[in-house]
Amino acid sequence: MTTLVLENPKSNIIDIQGDTWSERAMSASKLQKIQFEKGSSQYSNLELARNRAAFTRWKTIENLDKYLIEFESNFIKAGGKVIWAQDITDALEAVLEILKKSGAKEIIKSKTNTASEMGLNAFLENEGFQFSETDTGDFIVHAADESGSHMVLPALHKSTKEIASLLHDKLGLPADAEAQGIVRFIRDHLRDTFQTADVGITGCNFLIADPGAVVILENEGNAQLTAAMPKIHIVLAGIDKMLPALSDLDVFLPLLSTYGTGQTLATYNNIISGPKQAEDRDGPEELYIILLDNGRTDVLAHDQQRQALSCIKCGACQTVCPIYHTAGVSDFPSPIAAVTLPLQQVEMQHLSHASTLCGSCKDVCPVKIDIPRLLLQNRKLFVDKGLVNRTEKWFYYAWKKAMLKREIMSWTGISARKHILDSLFKSKDGLRKMPIHSKEIPFNEWYREKMNYK
């Protein structure tokens, strides 16, 4: 197991405050901006770094088949084992086969959005396996039997008091514990688990085609222990995680940290290029990677929307999204998922409509994905395919007819004023009233008369 760990002990971690969901979401957004200013100060030309990253990811996605084959070849040469999963069922069956073959009794997991996509936790529980979440946020939401609410900060929806109360009831944590005490308690609770686990399951941030390596960024050290301590390490990765070469990390490691948490560099940056070798002191005896498609090639088939696969999962778009601040969602809760998921699963097409198209997500994307434009492309695609409901089709048909005929538009405007706006602004105390409209002729008639239009 060849592992390179770059440590950054002075890194800054975002501290979220607030007792309600809305307060914490807004706090995360504000702190993201503050932390981003600190992290981005390391760049003399941030736009150049973003352009380089966007081009590299575009080149990779456009040639994904080539880089996947190169990655597989190099990964196998280093002693790893590659499993291709067409869908979630294939991926779960592959995990189950490895666990049964190894006779695993104790499993540990680090943070992985791919596992959430697969529904791995519920699957392991149904199959009778015991496992422990080692990421602090995932540990909390698992204890609460809930789904994560943020791509990077899965327990954002819970306040410190709620977390302390939860862990008090479940594990005996003092009910008045503060944030540092909670983290210390979870760390102590998991320490022995790392040493006794048979299998470790992690995700990854990047796959490197040359030399066939897996890259994991983290701030707690739990992913490193999950990868190195058990005899078997399973990596779950979407096929879109690819980068061409190790040299590309000089752009992507600081960029992901800057946009994700506002750090100049994540605390631990792990590069794993194979299982334990004879000269290694630690590491897994077997290293598996499960490469999951699950509809990503369907996204790749669209000339415009395939840009969404360039996402590096920093979570910045989700943090600034006004829809997320207001409603909050779990399982793939991000604007970028509103582009990809409807193309992967038709029943998720409503996500492409759950957006204000304000453009905040585009502004903060480190690889310059034009998310609002891609959402509009999705909407057009669904209309072209006839996937919208009949009521919506008739509504827009009538609206188009009205907008193309001046008389109808004027009539509907007057009707809306009389029957809708006036009623909305009425109050029994007479405090809200619509201003009285002019008794003169309508503007369009005045304009036609003024300009001598017939």
Can you describe what's shown?
This protein folds into three domains: 3-294, Rossmann fold (3-Layer(aba) Sandwich), CATH 3.40.50.10420; 314-384, no CATH class; 390-450, no CATH class. Helices cover 49% and strands 12% of the residues. The chain is built from 20 helices and eleven strands. Strands 2-11-8-5-3-4 form a six-stranded parallel sheet, sandwiched between helices. Strand 6 and strand 7 form a beta hairpin. The protein is globular, with a radius of gyration of 26 Å.
Radius of gyration, Cα only, in angstroms?
A: 26 Å
Instruction: Sum up the overall morphology in one term.
Output: globular
Our estimate of the beta-strand percent is: 5-15%
Number of helices: 20
Number of structural units classed as domains: 3
**CATH superfamily (homologous) name of the largest domain:** NagB/RpiA/CoA transferase-like
Describe, in short, the structure shown:
With 454 residues, the protein is α/β, with parallel strands linked by helices. The protein is built from 20 helices and eleven strands. A hairpin with a 2-residue loop joins strand 6 and strand 7.
Task: Lay out the secondary structure.
Layout (H helix, E strand, L loop, with lengths): L2 E5 L13 H20 L5 H17 L1 H14 L3 E5 L2 H15 L3 E4 L3 H6 L1 H7 L3 E4 L2 H8 L16 H12 L7 H18 L2 E4 L3 E5 L2 E6 L3 H7 L3 E7 L3 E4 L3 H12 L7 E5 L13 E7 L3 H5 L15 H5 L1 H5 L8 H10 L15 H5 L6 H14 L5 H14 L2 H19 L18 H8 L4
Parallel strand pairs: 2-11, 3-4, 3-5, 5-8, 6-9, 8-11
Antiparallel strand pairs: 1-10, 6-7, 7-10
